[in-house]
Amino acid sequence: MHVQVNETHLLSPFPDDAETAAYLPLPRRRVMARQRRGGCPLARLAAVFFIAYGMTAGGVLFGGLAAVLSRTPPVPFMLRLAEDLKYWAVMAAVGGTITALKSLEEGVFGGRPGELLKGLALLGAAFLGAALAAQHLAWALRDPTRG
Length: 147
Prior knowledge:
The protein is an all-alpha fold. Helix content is 76%, strand content 0%.
């Protein structure tokens, strides 16, 4: 059997046609199959968690810098900002409001419970990351003399 290779196969490390993929070693074929299915679910959950955590923590820290530069008390400003940024960080981490809602809609009305569970898990990971960042910042910003 002769496999015809063109320039697109030379540029891409993951060929699309099954004939070329059949000549690849088994681990490489598994990677290609996982990429077609959307990647590793645990890696996506971890990415969503840390994106929400980083957006909340980074936004609050830079907001605290803005509060110092504008001569307002930074600690109350940062605590308020942490509560406000949590929800924005969740929506940004799951890819925007439309994709998250579409995923949940497919699960509920499309009869695909796997999509519903995946959407709920992503939202849960994002909420957990943002809430944990806000809690860590609240602990770091508390006054140690008050207890």
